[in-house]
UniProtKB/TrEMBL annotation:
SUPFAM superfamilies according to UniProt: alpha/beta-Hydrolases
Leader sequence residues: none
Keywords: Hydrolase
Entry GO MF terms: hydrolase activity
Gene Ontology cellular component annotations, sorted alphabetically: membrane
InterPro entries (alphabetical): AB_hydrolase_1 (IPR000073), AB_hydrolase_fold (IPR029058), AB_hydrolase_sf (IPR050266), Epox_hydrolase-like (IPR000639)
Organism name: Phytohabitans houttuyneae
Keyword Hydrolase assigned: yes
Highest taxon above the source species: Bacteria
Pfam families from the UniProt entry: Abhydrolase_6
Protein name: Alpha/beta hydrolase
Domain AB hydrolase-1: 14-241
Length: 252
């Protein structure tokens, strides 16, 4: 397989899909908690992130994650997915609902979302910095935008390393390879779903969570008053308690 992933622990499988600000290392604080609670943690790098190379042909992120589950010998898994990875988690759970036992979406993106003013301004600023070749400033912009007030300096440095690495990998590859787009309906998701949003995140992600909670058949929305965009890194202990509580109730 070209998708880099790792496995820790034994028991029911939990697939962790990272934010597109980070890579699979963002789940470092969650893996020991999952293993200690009797779960098997599987975490993978999407294409162009972490140790997974850029694609050399049309690719399908959701199919990639299904292939990871197959390669890891998991017939069924709970899926925990953040931000841009949340869109992959939704697609995986909608296209192959029998394979997903529970779905936790953390400040998730969603297909077809019209960005609000702040998110649009961020996208434009990031694009301008990268076009100017200022990867340092683009990295700093991401760290400032996506981490909430509880993130310490070590966490900010960690996110900066992951984000900068992704920029370097993606900017080094000039080939334009399209993502395969498969029509799916999120209402086909059968797994119990927890939608988490952060009060210190851009407002788009609270709106997305509320909208998906209304569309998904078995969903609830939990806003976190302390969180930014990456609560699993900002306050891992609080996030882990929420995660394990959900998995136990969601039959993960």
């Amino acid at each position: 397989m070209t998708i880099a992933y790792d496995v820790a622990g034994s028991g029911p499988t939990v697939l962790l899909i990272h934010s597109t600000v980070c890579d699979r290392r963002m789940w470092d604080p969650q893996v020991p908690a999952l293993v200690g609670a009797g779960y098997r943690a599987v975490r993978a790098d999407l294409r162009g992130f972490g140790e997974t190379p850029m694609p050399d042909r049309p690719y399908d992120n959701a199919r990639d994650m299904l292939d990871v589950l197959d390669d890891a010998g998991a017939d069924r898994a709970a899926v925990v997915a953040a931000s841009g990875g949340g869109r992959v988690g939704q697609e995986l759970a909608a296209r192959w609902p029998a394979r997903v036992s529970a779905l936790m979406l953390v400040n998730t993106a969603v297909d077809g979302h019209e960005p609000g003013e702040e998110l649009r301004a961020f996208d434009e600023r990031e694009e301008a910095l990268l076009e100017a070749g200022d990867v340092d400033a683009a990295t700093a912009l991401n760290v400032a935008t996506w981490l909430g007030p509880h993130a310490d300096e070590a966490t900010r440095a960690w996110v900066a390393r992951m984000q900068r690495h992704a920029f370097e990998v993606q900017l080094a590859d000039s080939a334009e390879v399209e993502r395969v787009r498969v029509a799916y309906d999120v209402s086909a998701v059968t797994a119990p779903t927890l939608l988490v949003s952060g009060a210190h995140d851009l407002p788009d992600f609270t709106r997305i969570a509320a909208g998906l909670a209304a569309r998904l058949p078995h969903a609830r929305h939990v806003p976190l008053d302390w969180a930014g965009h990456l609560p699993s890194l900002e306050r891992p202990e609080a996030f882990n308690a929420l995660l394990l509580d959900f998995l136990r109730g969601g039959d993960g």
